[in-house]
Amino acid sequence: MADKNAFPTYRGDMEYFCLGCGARYDTTELHYTCPDCGGVFLLQDKNFDALRETSGEEWREIFDTRAGSKNDPLRGIFRFYELMAPVMDDKDIVFLGEGNTPIVQSSPQLSAELDGQKLAFKNDGQNPSASFKDRGMACAFSFLNYLIRTQGADDILAVCASTGDTSAAAALYASYASDKIKSAVLLPQGKVTPQQLAQPLGSGATVLEIPGVFDDCMKVVEHLADNYQVALLNSKNAWRILGQESYAFELAQWYDWDLEGKAVFVPVGNAGNITAIMSGFLKMYDLGIITALPRIFGVQSHHADPVYRYYAEAPKKRKYAPVEVEPSVAQAAMIGNPVSFPRVRYFAEKFEAIAGEGSFQVVQVSEQDIIEGMLLANRHGHISCTQGGECLAGLVKARQLGLISADETAILDATAHMLKFIGFQNMYYENTYPAEYGITPKPELANMPELVIDAESKEKLSAQDYTVACASSIVEKLGLKHR
């Protein structure tokens, strides 16, 4: 039997497929939207049928064996090489430790607070740049390396619009991938947390701010990609979507390839992640790697909810329309016109054709629910960002609506590390939210430091008396008992 730790010999024949007009293009160059109709692309392997010659059981064994590999190109998302972007050689692949993020079961206490609901968080904030975007960037930059090697591409400027996570990931991977790649990121002025702004600056990217929101930045980078020689790294880049499919592959592998009774909650911003996750599950189902699809719940804030509004209508009345966003603590999801909406619709139809009505749904939650979802999760040992809080709020809403039962296992996507969004926690504790957020903090949830003894009192005490006074104050506050 071939060494399963060796880099795969299989090579696919990838092509772009336009969801708008059905046009197909080869992948010898980067395309973002269809030159014929402007539609968004998927990437498809024309040799995919050859993968069916390997049984689902054999694929499971291959992927499980690779999970322990010490071969760098197979240690991360590319251990699922044949299912993602199987045109690259091992020398093309960028690995910074992305993927393999843990799925952490909720504490019994959190489950009890949610009426016995079984749930877990997949902590994608434990990727290298502290967000899920590293999955897509690992694939996108590996493809850029492939173009440099095979097409002689040189002096590449990688650009993206971002609310924070995309820019952090793009700048990090650009700084590592090749001296032939430079990066520039466009951020909405004043709409990115200090932590997220610091990341691309630290990685050496050119950071450009423009007034407005993410959608304004996106229009600018789209104009650049349409008219100038740049590598666009937003989710219009179909190679990025491929990398994010690894989330689905890892989730299935963790549950021993059995997704019966599982429900996956995903925050929806630009809709690239939920697109990738559905695509990944469908590929595995097609190859017999899994025999049941999980249910998918997209979650949107009422401050940025175009996908929810579309699916809230009866099928025959549905008409997609962008919305004007309002400020949101789920900053990465504050997008009123998601680029990947056509992909969502495409894969949702496929999901429902296989798994039936209710296998794909979208729920809407309030800003208050989102921030309190984050606080609740993290008070029970998680490291959830506001988008993870959005997922927990979505689970609570789904329970209230009778869309999910307590005996289903809900897996919540915590897309980034909570430290990226710590300012929103501080605003809640300090009750400093601007009115437009619509959040009224509950005093009982606030957690602020308490001064044990003031500096003036300290100055009046000897060193020994100061120690005793501090200890006595702590004993009183904590209700400690003598041994």
UniProtKB/TrEMBL annotation:
Q: Report which residue ranges the record marks as coiled coil.
A: none
Q: Which reaction does it catalyse?
A: O-phospho-L-homoserine + H2O = L-threonine + phosphate
Has UniProt tagged this entry with the keyword Zinc? no
EC identifiers of the protein: 4.2.3.1
Which pathway does it take part in?
Answer: Amino-acid biosynthesis; L-threonine biosynthesis; L-threonine from L-aspartate: step 5/5
A Pfam family annotated for this chain is PALP
Q: Which InterPro entries does its entry note? A: Ser/Thr_Dehydratase, Ser/Thr_deHydtase_PyrdxlP-BS, Thr_synthase-like, TrpB-like_PALP, TrpB-like_PALP_sf
Gene Ontology terms describing biological process: isoleucine biosynthetic process; L-serine catabolic process; L-threonine catabolic process; threonine biosynthetic process
Looking at the keywords, is Amino-acid biosynthesis present? yes
Q: Which GO terms describe its molecular function?
A: L-serine ammonia-lyase activity; pyridoxal phosphate binding; threonine deaminase activity; threonine synthase activity
Swiss-Prot/TrEMBL keywords: Amino-acid biosynthesis, Lyase, Pyridoxal phosphate, Threonine biosynthesis
Q: Which domain of life is it from?
A: Bacteria
Name what cofactor the protein needs: pyridoxal 5'-phosphate
Q: Which residues carry this modification: N6-(pyridoxal phosphate)lysine?
A: K133
Where is each Tryptophan synthase beta chain-like PALP domain found? 95-409
Cross-referenced NCBIfam families, in alphabetical order? thrC
Assigned protein family? Belongs to the threonine synthase family.
What this protein is called in its record is: Threonine synthase
